[in-house]
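Handout, section 3.2

Students often ask what a structure token actually looks like in practice. Rather than define it abstractly, here is a full record for Acetyl-CoA C-acyltransferase. The first block is the sequence as you would receive it.
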Amino acid sequence: MAEAVIVDAVRLASGKGKPGGALSGTHPVELLAHVLRAIVDRNGLDPARVDDVIGGCVQQVGEQSLNISRTALLSAGFPESVPATTIDRQCGSSQQAAHFAAQGVIAGAYDIVIACGVESMSRIPMGTSSIGQDTAGPGIAARYPEGLIHQGISAELISAKWKLDRESLDAYAARSHQRAAAAAASGAFDREILPITVGGPDGTEYAHTVDETVRASTTADGLAGLRPSFRTDEFAARFPEAPWQITPGNSSPLTDGASAVLIMSEKAATELDLTPRARFHSFAVLGDDPLMMLTAPIPATRRVLARAGLSIDDLDAYEVNEAFAPVPLAWAHELGADPAKLNPLGGAIALGHALGSSGTRLLTTLVNHLETTGGRYGLQTMCEGAGMANATIIERL
């Protein structure tokens, strides 16, 4: 059985997902094309050798429709012979892309494959693909007669179930910004961030290299003044247990971004004289309660640890996507995880959550962190819409 190894992993610095954000003037095809072009160029790889490009994107509509992964690789100058597909497992789309890519290598179906992801939330706002649509249908209405809910409400219910107070959520969010700012200042992101030329507000061009969503001055006291985002009279009546303490400050911001990971068999890496940086060790994907929605990383982590034959203490770092602060806090409580190892360079609350790009963004940051610290095993997991989660364990080589 072939080993699936990671040869390189890159990302764009985050852009605020709103008009005027650093990446908002760039078409999402070009965001993805930029990382695809760079990951082959910086490894001296003939793109004709790539067996497939598997990309994640959530809002596959408008500029992100019609298989954006294929459009982007053509824009990047790849040969027409290289195929691509775009998948949607909600926030875990590009993590699932990495799973499919690595599993294809392990199965012998691929020698070289790129897993990637993109989302331009400034140009294709969240929810655009479902506007005016009945996405549930009668079967869901019959099974869940009260209806499924917004993820923000799910975050409120998690806060209630795990008795997480507002102070804890805001302190965690502030720590995410502080860790990300410290990592940027130390150069920890330098190897993973690709410069991209963008236009400034005055029309001049510059290289975007710094995560625009990180606020180094953030404090818990400052966040405490923000108002809850999701409380309505209807939801307050339906969920009297909800504490109503999820705010823009302890949630991930709307974000633009793209990322890519070069995955191949160990044999192919040797033939091309490329040095593997990590290998895929174990995989899991799991569904959970679609009402709580954001809790699936907990059982997914337990499953992947069981498959790996490892304990949480064997891991040197964990990247748990910070869709909302209660998600990693509840996860850490249930797993008995070391807070120092949890999102050590900050998470999505600071670095942003460009939906389709987030899976390979987390993987990129995890690979680089293990190399910097000399850690051996790393875990990434993320909550996904409708109550799902992917979990991945990698081993640094």
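Discussion prompt for tutorial groups: The radius of gyration is 20 Å. How would you have guessed this from the sequence alone?
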